[in-house]
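Q: Sequence in, structure out?
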Amino acid sequence: MSDPLVYASALLAYLLGSIPFGLLLTRLAGLGDLRAIGSGNIGTTNVLRAGGAGLALVTLVFDIGKGAVAVLIARQFGPDATAAAAVCAVLGHMFPLWLKFKGGKGVATAAGVFLAYAWPMGLAAVATWIVAAAIWRYSSLAALIAAVSVPAYAWLAGLRGAEPMAVVLVIALLVILRHTVNIRRLLDGTESKISFGKKRA
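A: Exactly. Output:
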């Protein structure tokens, strides 16, 4: 891991991951500071609450895209650079420099990373989120189920080496840890369900 290209890939991935598309898009749409709306999160689910399904979809695409692009760029420089970029892209979304390290949950960015890292694993994780969200209507619960499931999908997709499995496990753990508050709300029955209505809170 002493190759300068690994560090450069990690830095670029972090910077890409740290672009707060949800915050930027809601401001461009004239909705104000997303951090003062709904849950205060900068991710897709809160954009859905603030700006409706269309704006949320654009946010989702960009957040997935930045994770995928970071990995695809790093892939040109080898597996170590790819592994570093995968983790750092998610860290960038969760702890963005521009927002005093207070970012989102990293679910969409992790999905982009997984899709670029091994697309069968990524598709399985995305499908798991969609099915869980459709059944229970909790974005956080769907994310947790997908995060718990993704190491098995990685194994089935052939990522059985120590480094790729470590990448998957680290990202899954990061996503779970970022949902600690949501887990408490799910347990006490106060977690908000997904709603496609546009509202301010």
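The mean pLDDT is 94.
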